[in-house]
Amino acid sequence: MQIEITQVGIVGAGAMGQGIAQLAAEAGCTVRLLDTRPGAAHDAVQAIVWQWERLAESGKRSTQAVHACRTRLFAAADLAELAACDLVIEAIAEQADAKRALLAELEAVVATGALLASNTSSLSITALGTALGQPQRFCGFHFFNPAPRMKVVEIVPGLRTAPATADALAALAERMGHTPVRAQDTPGFIVNRAGRAFGTEALAIVSEGVTDFATVDRILRDQVGFRLGPFELMDLTGLDVSHPVMESIYHQFYEEPRFRPSVITAQRLAAGLLGRKSGAGFYRYDNGVAQVPDEPPAPTVGTLPPVWVSSRAARRAELYQLLKDLGASIETASAPSSQALCLVAPLGFDVTTVAVVERLDPARTVGIDLLIDDASTRRRVLATNPATRGDMRDAAHALMARDGKPVSVLKDSGGFVTQRVVAQIVNTASDICQQAACRPAELEQAVALGLGYPLGPLAMGDRWGPTNILEVLFNLQTVYGDPRYRPSPWLRRRGALGLSLTHTEA
């Protein structure tokens, strides 16, 4: 049975409700927008109309099209005005009890055949549907902020949702010019679940004192190609949004260590340091512009010591070539001389562990992250261990900065920054596929559109090597003893067999 949607009601006139209302009106639906705050729905309608008028003035939309959209958009005064709607979408605050109460009220108002939907980003659709007498007509319909620009919508059926309900919402999403992706009703669905590792692992790194917020952001932008670093992203989203989602997904998965939140965001939320909206978050903002601390310059060093490279270094041949290009004096003996800077390039291990295992002088040992080949990255990242001498740290920094490429120097950490974050992104995505929350192609598409990563998470794993990602995770588990780093069976088996992480079984 095909369900036609021509009249849409939206409850909640905040940023999400306003964006969805704009899309629905542009898709040809008559839209009624409702909010319990006095005047909020009227103000949201005016804001949408203002945007349409600006588009007309710039020639991006015709005056006739704007007029047609305007005649389809109304502010509603109460729930009764939504009675004739074919679909009502709740877009209120992320509170389960409030959403269930609203959905029960809506079911009593709309027609028997009308559909109900929730824009929840993390709450269970099945659990919300328990408030309804007809849960088969209820489905998750999750847009991303800002809805007009984020061209993906998660269609999330609950356990009792009728297939025709999900199909109707997918068809409406396409009319809106968006890509619908089907997700199972698991905490965080696809995008918010896949995106957990980016922020939570960055927070874990900073909580260990490895480095600061700005350095983590610089590394992940320059080494991997993310548009925003995790702390820039949390400041943009606002901790009043992102921290509750972290906690919600963590608790819904019964305290799964992969999704463990951080006391850092809990404290900053309590202090009102929400991000751009409050003028201060991980960064301070002046007229909306982040005040980022200057990057430390490369030290000035006189005569550089010779460099000896560990026989177990990742990308050892490439590292030798890099050292030659930088004009280093390279030692090639089986063991370093007493003057040499000892350079190691571990995957997942910290510099301390490598120095002890390889019986190197820790005072002269420095690590370099080579998960990503040097030609593909705009930044080099080094790590010391607690015993590394200052002159050896400075020599390594000065050498690696000789060609002008920026260098970040970290305190010791298993997996540096990039290895930890990328491995956790790939591992989390692998678990989503292993648990059949969605198909690999849908995962890659949803993350590309919803998170704007430079590559889909499975494609990241394929590009930098499933076996390398596995080695990082196994070694992180050894260093930290934390089950959050246990490899997903999806990743472990495909890595062992030399298969693409997008491979599905026959």
Structural write-up:
The structure is a single chain. This protein is of the alpha/beta class and 506 residues long. Among the domains are: 7-185, Rossmann fold, CATH 3.40.50.720; 307-405. The chain is built from 20 helices and 16 strands. The chain has helices at 15-26, 40-57, 63-70, 96-109, 125-128, 163-175, 191-194, 196-207, 213-224, 230-237, 239-252, 263-270, 316-325, 351-357, 390-400, 418-434, 440-450, 457-464, 466-480, 489-497, and strands spanning 7-11, 30-34, 73-75, 87-90, 115-118, 138-142, 152-157, 179-182, 284-286, 289-291, 307-309, 330-331, 341-344, 365-368, 380-383, 407-410. An eight-stranded mixed sheet has the order 3-2-1-4-5-6-7-8, sandwiched between helices. A hairpin with a 2-residue loop joins strand 9 and strand 10 (289-291). Helix 1 crosses helix 2 (40-57), helix 8 (196-207) runs antiparallel to helix 16 (418-434) and helix 16 packs across helix 18. The two termini are 31 Å apart. The model has no long low-confidence stretch (mean pLDDT 96).
Approximately what portion of the residues adopt beta-strand conformation?
5-15%
Helical amount? 40-55%
Return the CATH architecture of one domain: 3-Layer(aba) Sandwich
**What is CATH's topology name of one domain?**
Rossmann fold
Radius of gyration: 26 Å
CATH superfamily descriptor of one domain: NAD(P)-binding Rossmann-like Domain
CA-CA gap between termini: 31 Å
- The class by helix and strand makeup works out as alpha/beta
The shape, in one word, is: elongated
Number of strands: 16
How many H/I helices? 20
Largest sheet: 8 strands, mixed
